[in-house]
Model the fold of this input.
Amino acid sequence: MIVPDLITPIDFDKNTNEFIFTLENYILRINYQEEVFELQTPNQLAYNESFEFIKSPPEWFDTIDFGLVEWIRKAIEWNKTKSQPQDVTKPFSFKVEGIIYTGTFNPRTNELSLSIPSKTIICRRDSITTDFPEVQFMENGELITKVTDIIIDKIKSGSSKKDLDYPPSLPLVFRPETIIAGYRMFDFDYNVELDLALLMIPNREIQANLLTIETDARELAELHQGMLCDVIRSVVYEKSISE
Done:
């Protein structure tokens, strides 16, 4: 086999924590945490070995296919070099449901940076996580925890919510307080009588690996009914091929 200079995985199996590489009908699955790999040959044979095995493999393994050992070694080394800075990032932009997203993508490391525009949410208390499920994953869950605490405090300290059979007086007045979650600042207020919450989300920059985007940035998997991650993959792969 001819081993290319640039080797990157084509997929990630989150159930087994394995990165998947392919070359000339060989399939290589690598678990970097446990330091083991599985090689599946074109004739359906499978070899499960440790990283130590490939450092000095026996002759029979070395002769399965010329270049096979070199390919496996390079794939193992990919995890050590994938986060090193390389000036091959490509900018991209796209629109989903009227919202414009921009970012950069490194095709060598699969590292992705995505800019998410600011957004203001006004909704019923019970609708915060049902209508906007991404909120519960922002800042690793820290934001929704602080929002919930504020709501509970306001309910305890305020009067009981009235049963509204009439339109509320306008304009509605919110007096939001600043919440610091992670390293970002959000503005939030909750009106107990009207059961209305206001959440102002600033512009944000999300960093993730394209292969593990759903686990690196859980909120992205929830945006736009779960289709945002598929759009991101489509856009960056198309751009990587065309340039």
User: Anything to note?
Assistant: Residues 62 and 100 are 51 Å apart (CA to CA). The first helix runs from residue 51 to 55. The chain has a mean pLDDT of 86.
